[in-house]
Amino acid sequence: MQPSSPSAQANFSYVFPAIRGVQAGREFYVSMCPLRLLPKLFHFDDEELLPELRAQRTLNKGRVPEIARYIVENKTSYTFSAITASIDGNIHFDPVGKDSVAAFRMGTLSVPMEARFIVNDGQHRRAAIEAALAAAPELGDETIAVVFFVDRGLHRCQQMFADLNRHAVKPSASLGILYDHRNAAAKVAKHLSLTSPVFKNLIETERSTLSARSRKLFTLSALHFATLELLPEKDLEDFPKASQQCQDFWEAVGNQIPEWIYVRESKMTAGEVRRDFIHCHAIVLQALGRAGRALYAQHPSELKKRLQRLRKVDWSRSNAKVWEGRAMIGGSMSKSGQNVTLTCNEIKRVLGLQLTAEEQAAEAAFHAGRKVPSKA
């Protein structure tokens, strides 16, 4: 892309090599844009405007550093999908020839410099690329695909935003972890799912929820988050050591939960265990992992001995006296951070572990909420 000479309209223009296509009877264009030019070309709507007067959502600035860090830390392997933008201006497409359909569709797209580009999809990618270029300017000559539509007013831009996001479905957490070969915790969790006698053949790798008839007992996402609770991220970078430590811990835990063993021995179905007990659900795995980290920190030499105390725990859903308000709300499993903490507190109590100040505060609030007001 480069500025052209004055056109027939006496304007300077940006010229993009482009491919012309047709959707819904309207022309659109696909081109490549150098990363260094994205911040100059694409701007955001004024965020002070009311939502009904904007063509896009408000930029979530909290997301930008994470995406920028992803680019900088993976310079040789990052991947981005196309940015979609509308052009508010008079454009002109020059095909390279007219003798064939291919020649007719390939050419150059001229856009007046005074035209306005509106990002319909990809504003966070654009902001992250700008931030990444500040840290790694050598990425400026790399390119990203851009799909250009002709702007037909605010109403059309808002409808495009709605249409582009209408059918967008984020992949399940388990599938994202399965396909992630960079994340250290994901690598360890996948290794455990394939090699650990506790989890082998019992991990659902595609979905993050299990149907009543599923033969799987755990989800990969649950094991992943439990792994993050068990070991600090810096320890997870040492894959052999982290894998062995996680395997030792979960085998010691699994030996104290009879129902996990019964499923492996086909004495109970996974569905029966999930229906009647809480210990195979994500919140409890996460709480067990967090308690495990405290156990390694406080009593590393007593790991297996203290974990034997888990055999005395009544993990059944019917044990509402213990689990209601901790792992369950109204009889249903709860995944909130507060419930993970309260479930972990109970496991720590069983294991004889000290609570952190934050955990003590959560415990105090939990018991205060259970007090029955005295009658006057």
Automatic annotation (TrEMBL):
Residues that span the membrane, as ranges: none
**Which positions carry the signal peptide feature in this UniProt record?**
none
**What residue ranges carry the coiled-coil annotation?**
none
Alphabetical list of CDD domains matching this protein: dndB
What InterPro entries has UniProt attached to this entry?
DGQHR-contain_dom, DNA_S_mod_DndB
The record's listing under NCBIfam families reads: DGQHR, DNA_S_dndB
From the Swiss-Prot or TrEMBL record, give the protein name.
DNA sulfur modification protein DndB
| Record organism | Acidovorax delafieldii (Pseudomonas delafieldii)
